[in-house]
Design a protein that fits this description.
Layout: H1 2-7, H2 11-37, H3 42-65, H4 73-104, H5 109-133
Length: 139
Amino acid sequence: MIKFVLKHINRETISYLIVGGLTTLISIAVFAIATIFLGLGTTLANTLAHACGILFAYVANKVFVFRKPGWGPRVVFSEFSKFGTARALAYVLETALLLLLANVLGFPRIIMKAFITQPLVIVGNYIFSKWVVFAPDEE
């Protein structure tokens, strides 16, 4: 296990973790503001948090993590369509898990989002982003 982890620690994975961490902080902050200060329910607050996270994460991953050139409309549409689809799937799975943990089982919403659902989302999104959205160009 340690060899596997050490083999995969590089600039890309470290920058992905930083961007993922920032995305998570943005998502949690928006979720907290939406639930605590705006009084929104779990699903609506998580939708808003997820949308803010997607916008930030697409740009940050493209620029800083995977260093993919090209900002033309076709490139951005293609990448963002795949990115958005993956993130939408992650959103559905995260929301279902969050509703189960918080609304059904009664665990604290923000704690469940921060320590259970977000880490799962980060790992899944990295795999999809690396191998589908920002996959290396075949030459």
